[in-house]
Amino acid sequence: MSILLFGCEAILPKETAATPTPTEVPTEAPTVEPTPEPTFEQVLLSTPGPTAELTPEVTPEPESETTPAPTPGQKGPTPTPFSIVWMSDTQNLTRHYPEVFNSMRDWILNEREAQNIVFFVHTGDVVDGCSQTMWDNASIALIPILYQIPGIMVSGNHDVSSENKQKLFYERPYARMMLKEGQSFQNGECAYQTFTAGGDEFLVFGFGYKVNGSGMWRWVSSVIEAHPNAVVLFVMHDGLQPENVHSGQAKELLKRIAETTPNAKMLLCGHNDGFLRHEDLFDDDGDGESDRCFYTLMFNVQDDVEEGLGYMRILTFYPEDRHIEVKLYSPWFNRWDYPKALPEENGFILENAY
To answer: Fewer beta carbons under 10 A from the terminal one: N or C of the chain?
Structure first.
């Protein structure tokens, strides 16, 4: 099976990091002649630690992908589990705590092989408005990740403006890096990435904030038709409301795409505070019994500056039983749980999820 996307837990000592002092950021609008954005090379050279000497490289395929197929009657090797790292709503970090954002970057790059991280997702609100300082902070944290790991990013309401809507987001270098020729609609209002891991092809779609035109949905359908065996994942900013019901954009996704696409498996989103999980059951073969669970997951702990800094979700896929393990981790606190979350929010397993 191939998966289409729309971008080993260790027991670690729980250390408490001191909350950093907020960095003052000018709130006035950008001047007519803003400071030029740093080039990729400037960003890489200014990045400490493991990202100081990055060079472009092709993401290596898992070992199982290069192993010769077994002969008839012979059982092949078990595909290696792999992970997707998911960030959401980092605007508070780009405004006040860039050092926390950088710690997330460093952990991803340092743990890339150990966690077998094959894909990166950001569900929007990268920055908190039109500030060159925040754009630069985001570039320094994100460009080294996207330079080594394929990913999908979407705009949130704090990434766009009423005047030029999505254009403001997709002019940023970290957003441009994930746009590939022929894989975007309307210059990035919707885009997709593909990757192969664990013997499957994945198709991931990313939707810009509140982009909801019929032309976009037709384009998404055409891409899915061209990848009939892919596992399809979706990413948007505002997907679930606090009452745990889908937003307008997410409702359209389910009605137009997910309900009729047996390989559509999951939507990731942020925007609202806290943790939510929504499950929709679909009868794909029309026999009156549900055949597939479509999961919508949301998380956002940006407002907790005492205990919520630096949290990411790590989704580990297990090809042998098709389960997905969902965990929370903060490199800033070196902690595999969030103290204010319920046990079922900190970690859980989605069975037969893909």
So the answer is: N
